What we know:
By secondary structure, the chain is mainly alpha-helical. The chain is built from seven helices and no strands. The chain has helices at 2-6, 17-29, 39-65, 86-103, 105-116, 121-128, 132-154. Mean pLDDT is 76; it is low at 74-87.
Amino acid sequence: MAARHLLGERSTSTLQATALVNELCLRLLGWDPLRWQNRGHFFGVSAQMMRRVLVDIARRRGAERRGGPAAVRVPLDAIDVPARSPGGDILAVDRALQLLAEEDPRKAQVVELRFFGDLTVDQIAEALGVSVRTVQTDWAFARAWLYRTLAADAQ
């Protein structure tokens, strides 16, 4: 799962799948004792944590590209606009998922479990306690909704 998420990262990235999994485990262990209800609950929480880790990494990279704390201000007319970076995409997905969660939390959960958790439709249905058909319908709607939202943001 971690390796799949890192495929879109820049080739110069020093982050490896094992480091991403390590960060995920550290965050999970840092919580107060949590009673796992079932396998689906574990994967659901893991998917949320994976999303948070990837968003944090993308934000740090964005800060580094802007110079971090030692940044020097340059007038905007003196620079060219760079192409969008892979790290920016994960931030756009995160913002879109937050909007979707406000509109329909279950559909946002389906996306999170499918995209960040790498769960199958059957596993998601079990984790959320709904039918497989409901997950398929939610997934189809959420994909179309996210595509429309991300396309509108890109313009």
